[in-house]
């Protein structure tokens, strides 16, 4: 049975952090759910939510499966290279402010896009959804240096709700690397690894989420965002980024109901799927395909990269065979490298080198096919698969990531690329010198919930294509 609160109204107006303000809280309840006015304050956060369409950057294109895979591998390599650059910069001795500033994670190359609107009246645009960073930003007019985007640059002068934040505002103090002050206004600079960056004014603005078709519309006032007038990097034909990381400036931290979930559709036939926020982010209502239980594992913190969702990985099995991997392979090192991250912005998984080699050698021993490097795919572990009528039947086991308190079980289609036309069978996991990143190919058809309030990742297998 649904509680009266789990049915959100079609339009909710709420200032961010409204739960700390009793007046707003009472007003909200009086207007919307008077019967629930005896609920403790903490519950009000749980009663707001929305869902958005999550679109893969290559959805709707006419690429073949092989082209989709190659594009994904290419994007993924750029992201890992950027992560490496960031990790290196993080540990470098701080010699100058520019070096010190290069602390942020991830390349800007996006994997998934969401639609939202900024300002009053609302201006709709598309942005990259990124769990690897915090800042919400868009390119602003007048632009000193911007990349091309499909919608006009946001013009603060035309919005009734834009407020530049003063240097002494608490939000300005939350910018990392530290913001600077220009004519009493908070000026941020944010780097994504090697090539991408944004700089501009930190400001409050009203954002609108949902509202297309019949979906719930939620308006959030006073959301701190970056109005970027000097930007570089690839925005994947969108107009900005929305950070869903663990830091204070991310959307998920600012809006209060600090939980979201997504269910990524089949990677090589991408179709729009959903991102659930707040009350909608709940795995209990998931139509699971397998009847497998919801599993949960705690997040861990990497002090060098506190915005990212690190997990505790303890081992890997292929079928019933536990691979021989020293658990140190998955540890976060003193210098901030290593560890295991789950990420929405990396297309495929990158496994720490030793773990990768253990997996590769086990695959070679169980797959009765010839290993080859002579393919059109830049992946390190591929096999030739003779086309029909000579095709050999290959039975592949599940791959299991043994996380702290949870087993993430990946069926063959979540870790192998099977191309009968070209005659390839490839492992869609690469070796990494910087640590392990669990990417989107491995997350397909899993409904994954990021519950920041409880510092818990939950997941369950689900047919995401039909959501
Ligand atoms: C919106 O709701 C109306 C009435 O319930 C329905 O006829 C229409 O198909 C819905 N539109 C969408 C886009 O779901
Ligand atoms: C920005 O929003 C915060 C709430 O998140 C509020 O406390 C602050 O006063 C706002 N600042 C301005 C300049 O509007
Ligand atoms: C960018 O998006 C717009 C609108 O969705 C589309 O018309 C255009 O073809 C896209 N451009 C590229 C380079 O993908
Ligand atoms: C599912 O529901 C149960 C009981 O209602 C609750 O204890 C649990 O936290 C929920 N799980 C998730 C992942 O929301
Ligand atoms: C659950 O999914 C199955 C297909 O896997 C579908 O037939 C069924 O209608 C779904 N049930 C609900 C309640 O959505
Ligand atoms: C393919 O090349 C990679 C990197 O050069 C190497 O690690 C791997 O062992 C090669 N695989 C085969 C089957 O030769
Ligand atoms: C299939 O196997 C037969 C007999 O070994 C061989 O003559 C033929 O060339 C093979 N066909 C292909 C497409 O590899
Ligand atoms: C995970 O799988 C291992 C090996 O199959 C099993 O021993 C363990 O109990 C499982 N853990 C959970 C949380 O299901």
TrEMBL record:
* Domain Peptidase A1, residue spans: 112-460
Q: Entry's CDD domains? A: pepsin_A_like_plant
Enumerate the InterPro entries for this protein. Answer: Aspartic_peptidase_A1, Aspartic_peptidase_AS, Pepsin-like_plant, PEPTIDASE_A1, Peptidase_aspartic_dom_sf, Plant_Aspart_Prot_A1, TAXi_C, TAXi_N
The molecular function terms in GO held by this entry are: aspartic-type endopeptidase activity
> What name is this protein filed under?
Peptidase A1 domain-containing protein
The record's active-site residues are 130, 343
Which SUPFAM superfamilies does this entry report, sorted A to Z? Acid proteases
| PROSITE patterns tied to this protein | ASP_PROTEASE, PEPTIDASE_A1
User: Can you tell me which family this protein belongs to?
Assistant: Belongs to the peptidase A1 family.
Q: Does the keyword Oxidoreductase apply?
A: no
Q: Which residues form the signal peptide?
A: 1-37
GO cellular component terms, semicolon-separated: extracellular region
Going by the UniProt record, its keywords in alphabetical order are: Aspartyl protease, Glycoprotein, Hydrolase, Protease, Signal
Looking up Pfam families in the UniProt record yields: TAXi_C (PF14541), TAXi_N (PF14543)
GO BP term, pick one: proteolysis
């Amino acid at each position: 049975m649904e509680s009266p609160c789990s049915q959100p109204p079609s339009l909710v107006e709420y200032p961010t952090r409204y739960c700390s303000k009793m007046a707003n809280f009472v007003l909200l309840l009086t207007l919307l759910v008077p019967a629930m006015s005896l609920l403790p304050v903490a519950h009000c956060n749980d009663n707001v939510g929305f869902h958005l369409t999550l679109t893969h950057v290559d959805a709707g294109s006419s690429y073949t499966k092989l082209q989709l895979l190659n594009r994904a591998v290419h994007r993924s390599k750029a992201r890992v290279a950027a992560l490496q650059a960031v990790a290196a910069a993080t540990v470098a001795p701080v010699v100058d402010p520019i070096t010190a500033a290069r602390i942020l994670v991830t390349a800007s190359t996006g994997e998934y896009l969401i639609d939202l609107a900024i300002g009053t009246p609302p201006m709709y645009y598309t942005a990259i959804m990124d769990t690897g960073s915090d800042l919400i930003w868009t390119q602003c007019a007048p632009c000193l240096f911007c990349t091309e985007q499909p919608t006009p640059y946001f013009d603060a002068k035309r919005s009734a709700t834009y407020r530049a934040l003063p240097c002494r505002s608490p939000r300005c103090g939350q910018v990392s690397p530290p913001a600077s002050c220009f004519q009493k206004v908070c000026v941020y600079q944010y780097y994504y690894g090697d090539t991408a960056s944004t700089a501009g004014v930190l400001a409050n603005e009203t954002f609108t989420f949902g509202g297309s078709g019949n979906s719930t519309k939620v308006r959030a006032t006073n959301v701190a965002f970056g109005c970027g007038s000097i930007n570089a990097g690839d925005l994947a034909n969108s107009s900005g980024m929305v950070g869903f990381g663990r830091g204070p400036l991310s959307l998920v931290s600012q809006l209060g109901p600090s939980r979201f979930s997504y269910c990524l559709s089949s990677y090589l036939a991408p179709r729009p799927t959903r991102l659930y926020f707040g009350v909608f982010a709940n795995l209990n209502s998931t139509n699971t395909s397998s009847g497998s239980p919801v599993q949960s594992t705690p997040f861990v913190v990497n002090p060098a990269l506190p915005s990212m969702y690190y997990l505790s990985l303890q081992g890997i099995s292929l079928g019933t065979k536990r691979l021989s991997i020293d658990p140190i392979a998955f540890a976060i090192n003193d210098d901030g490298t290593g560890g295991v991250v789950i990420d929405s912005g990396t297309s495929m998984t990158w496994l720490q080198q030793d773990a990768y080699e253990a997996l590769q050698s086990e695959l070679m021993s169980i797959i009765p096919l010839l290993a080859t490097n002579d393919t059109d795919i830049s992946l390190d572990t591929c096999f030739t698969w003779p086309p029909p009528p000579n095709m050999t039947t290959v039975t592949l086991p599940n791959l299991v990531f043994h996380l702290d308190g949870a087993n993430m079980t990946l069926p063959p289609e979540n870790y192998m690329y099977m191309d009968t036309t070209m005659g390839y069978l490839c492992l869609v996991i690469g070796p990494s010198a910087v640590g392990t990143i669990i990417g989107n190919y491995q997350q397909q058809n899993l409904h994954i919930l990021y519950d920041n309030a409880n510092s818990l990742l939950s997941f369950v297998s689900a047919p995401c294509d039909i959501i």
